[in-house]
Structures are given as structure tokens and as C-alpha cells.
Write a structure and sequence with these properties.
It holds the Pfam family Response_reg. With 225 residues, this protein is an alpha/beta fold. The chain has 8 helices and 11 strands. It has a 5-stranded parallel sheet with strand order 2-1-3-4-5, sandwiched between helices. Helix 2 packs parallel to helix 3 and helix 6 crosses helix 7. It is elongated.
């Protein structure tokens, strides 16, 4: 799952990014409203954590602008404003949830999970390909009743492959989503993770394979396609 975190308090932002990545989320972080708007207009996200009081453009204005353009990405608002009127305003402007500061990270994670579950239910998304099933709640990959726990980035790469079956995805696409737009990770790191996932598919006895399109990228396909 790919999240955008828009929070101008850099120390808090770094702490949240660490927690979110530890819990299997890919995170892009921005520090002002204009940057958040730019990322949302040019990128694809599964959810947004949006602070209200930010430089250049406040979170409520960002929310109004993306909703006006038809962007229905789930949004969790963070705010030091705890008055009922502020919560009502945020929710009425299109937020899916509203969390006041200070907050416990456990509560933040629970609210993010709930937000993602609602999105999954609404879209009826099933992370299934052939005999494979990927669980967004347990971060396990299963085949014929056998399950293997995936590490953080293994899960995110497999999620991209299974959501885009038979589509060739480049190493650059994996790096952008899993490691972030500003990452200096090189292609050989992606190849290492692909090799691990291939071993896991073989271990599970799946008919699905990750094929290499030489010089282009990788695709999840049925073994004899």
C-alpha cells in the first residue's frame, strides 16, 4: 500500500515514516500543502495522511482541491484542532477520518488500516492471481493452503505484481513505489527481491511465475503462458 504523508513538522514526519514503513506501507513524505497537491496530481496513492496546518496551502484546501477534481483517494486528517466544528469541517470537505494531535501511533495505524479496509471493501479488491492469494492484513502469500510471511518490501513488490498481472513493470516503477520518488536505490536491489520472490513461489508450488522481459522489467504470469 502506497501512502502520501503531508506533515510540516519534520521530526514528527520522520517518526511516522519509520513506523509506517515498519508496518509494510510505502511512504512518500512532503512538508507543505502545495507539494502535497503536486504529488497527488501526479502520483497514485492508496491513502493520504494530511496535516491541516501546513505552509503554502493548508490541508483543508488541499482536500477541497483534490475532491473537486474527482480524486477519491482515502484521506486521514491530522490536526491539533480538536473542536467539534473543525472535525465536522474536515469530514464535510471529504476526509475519511480525523485524528487530533497528540495521538498514539497505535491509534494512527489502526485508523489507517480501517481506512484501507473501507477502500478494499468499496472496490471489492481481491489480491488473487491464479492459485496465489496475497493477504493485506497478515502480509502473507498463500497457495493451496500453504502460507509464507513476506518481509516489508517483498510484500510491496508482490502486491504490485499481483495487482498488475501479466503487465511488465520496470525496476524504476518498483523503486518509485516501494522506496520512494527520491530514493537512490539501484536496479540490482530490485533484482535481488525478485529472486527472493521467485524462490518463495517455487517453495509454495505455485503455477505463477515472475518472468523477465529483458531490458524492460518483470511480469507475473502463469507458468505455461
Amino acid at each position: 500500500m502506497r501512502l502520501l504523508l503531508a506533515e510540516d513538522e519534520k521530526e514528527l514526519s520522520r517518526a511516522l515514516v519509520t513506523v509506517l514503513k515498519y508496518n509494510h506501507y510505502s511512504v512518500d513524505e512532503v512538508y507543505d500543502g502545495m507539494e502535497a497537491l503536486e504529488y497527488l496530481e501526479n502520483g497514485s496513492y492508496d491513502g493520504v495522511i494530511l496535516d491541516v496546518m501546513m505552509p503554502k496551502l493548508d490541508g483543508i484546501s488541499v482536500l477541497k482541491k483534490i475532491r473537486a477534481k474527482g480524486n477519491q483517494v482515502p484521506v486521514l486528517i491530522l490536526s491539533a484542532k480538536s473542536a467539534l466544528e473543525d472535525k465536522v469541517l474536515g469530514l464535510d470537505c471529504g476526509a475519511d477520518d480525523y485524528l487530533t494531535k497528540p495521538f498514539a501511533t497505535k491509534e494512527l495505524l489502526a485508523r489507517v488500516r480501517a481506512m484501507m479496509r473501507r477502500k478494499t471493501t468499496e472496490l471489492d479488491t481481491k489480491l488473487v492471481f491464479e492459485d496465489l492469494e496475497l493477504s493485506p492484513t497478515t502480509f502473507q502469500l498463500g497457495c493451496k493452503g500453504e502460507w509464507v510471511y513476506l518481509a516489508n518490501k517483498e510484500y510491496q513488490i508482490m502486491e504490485m505484481l499481483i495487482i498488475n498481472p501479466r503487465c511488465v513493470l520496470s525496476a524504476g516503477q518498483f523503486i518509485e513505489v516501494v522506496w520512494g520518488c527520491d530514493s537512490d536505490v539501484e536496479n540490482n536491489v530490485v533484482w535481488t527481491y525478485i529472486s527472493r520472490l521467485r524462490r518463495i513461489l517455487k517453495q509454495l508450488g505455485s503455477k505463477a511465475v515472475i518472468r523477465t522481459a529483458k531490458g524492460i522489467g518483470f511480469a507475473l504470469e502463469r507458468e505455461n503462458d
